[in-house]
What we know:
The protein is an alpha+beta fold and 323 residues long. The chain is built from nine helices and 13 strands.
Amino acid sequence: xxxxxxxxxxxxxxxxxxxxxxxxxxxxxxxxxxxxxxxxxxxxxxxxxxxxxxxxxxxxxxxxxxxxxxxxxxxxxxxxxxxxxxxxxxxxxxxxxxxxxxxxxxxxxxxxxxxxxxxxxxxxxxxxxxxxxxxxxxxxxxxxxxxxxxxxxxxxxxxxxxxxxxxxxxxxxxxxxxxxxxxxxxxxxxxxxxxxxxxxxxxxxxxxxxxxxxxxxxxxxxxxxxxxxxxxxxxxxxxxxxxxxxxxxxxxxxxxxxxxxxxxxxxxxxxxxxxxxxxxxxxxxxxxxxxxxxxxxxxxxxxxxxxxxxxxxxxxxxxxxxx
Length: 323
């Protein structure tokens, strides 16, 4: 099968099958990882009529699965110019932390997605080890989607039901389970950035306060403001940027802008891993949101803009496709 007709048949076979296992699905932009719906993964559904409409309307759309119960948890092993997560993956396997894996999927980047039974753990990141964890409040692009002409492909699976993290179905397997992200973090990062930052009295980790500030940003300040808030959150050790994304939607930013801005902040955080942590003897960046009242004004220039002269956040890098 070739062309749009073949693509449609592939999608109308895969998407309903995920949905039948109670895994909510959503469309992404053709050839991209950016959701094609207004509210992103919050629009994910198992409704067969909605699913059919999405792909009959545009057969070229990619397919994503909302992660976390009732969907799967997924460990994303990244491959980047500065390294990959396969050494960390091997260590997790040796320690028995991958024993519950249901399926392995090869990503277009050369990385791997490892599927587990879903939980409500939330999302997590270990950038120094090139690992991302997708659970409640996230999504993952899934087969038969493609990016840059390369497809997501199932490369191995264990016997078991789809809802146990097995993309290919089969009979139930009692030994399949989940991934304990806290155990992964303890093994690979025994002194997480979050603990160091909080102990040092550095930037506060208050996603609700940051999200409230983002939601009040004026047009013309929204992208830089979201980038600034996401950078503050990541530097504080936070890993789930869902609240910031939802706040940005309220300002009118679309999914593509939000995804690219958050990805840009994450790339900056990845490059900063291993840098000296700010401590009591180092000055706090200008405009850093204090737990009480020191958030920058939403209508004022975002910290780090050229008009300010005090220490500031480096400027947001040019937009690039979400990695």
